[in-house]
Specification:
Layout (H helix, E strand, L loop, with lengths): L1 E4 L2 H18 L11 H13 L4 E5 L5 E9 L9 E8 L8 H15 L4 E7 L3 H9 L3 E12 L2 E11 L10
Parallel strand pairs: 4-5
Antiparallel strand pairs: 1-2, 2-3, 3-4, 5-7, 6-7
Helix pairs in contact: 1-2
């Protein structure tokens, strides 16, 4: 396995497959309908424009096994040191340590880019994701109950956070 920077040209289809499997089969994405290929162009544009990484893990045959990314937590200026991340592992490659590799890589990237707070929003019954985040030092910071409705039931949204030592000298503005 190797860490790579995902690109629109090479990874759109693989990322879309991972997203759409999660949408159709799980509560990890609070969405009902699969995403289209056309939706990926603006998604990648936002990532490029804001210097938000999309880091993947590929096998020796260059198949994408999972990816991690982050984006703005909120739009107001004072939130500029806080980001919200997402970790996705292909359903056929879970329980192989890929989530660990991806989460470590996104924490390192957040430190490199001088963020201070990494936030994960996790569906409340997704114990595998919760355990993964706790293993890497994330702590529970609150739950919004009945935040979503999917598969005929209400879904809670649990927030997990990791406070980073960066930036050395935060500034306002």
């Amino acid at each position: 396995m190797k860490l790579i920077e995902c690109t629109e040209e090479k990874h759109t289809t693989a990322i879309l497959d991972i997203f759409n499997h999660a949408i159709i089969n799980s509560t990890s994405i609070f969405d009902y309908k699969p995403r289209s290929v056309e939706s990926m162009k603006p998604w990648f544009e936002v990532k490029r424009k804001n210097n938000f990484p999309v880091i993947g893990v590929e096998d020796n045959d260059n198949n994408l096994l999972g990816f991690v990314t982050y984006g703005a937590f909120r739009i107001w200026a004072a939130y500029k040191y806080s980001i919200e991340h997402s970790v996705y592992v292909h359903h056929e490659h879970r329980k192989k340590g890929i989530g660990d590799i991806l989460l470590k890589s996104i924490v390192a990237k957040a430190i490199e880019q001088n963020y201070h707070l990494l936030i994960g929003g996790i569906e409340g019954t997704n114990l595998d994701s919760i355990k993964l985040h706790q293993k890497h030092g994330f702590s529970h910071s609150g739950t919004i109950t009945q935040a979503g409705y999917k598969f005929g039931r209400w879904l809670d949204l649990a927030f997990y956070q990791l406070i980073l030592s960066t930036p050395d000298e935060p500034i306002e503005g």
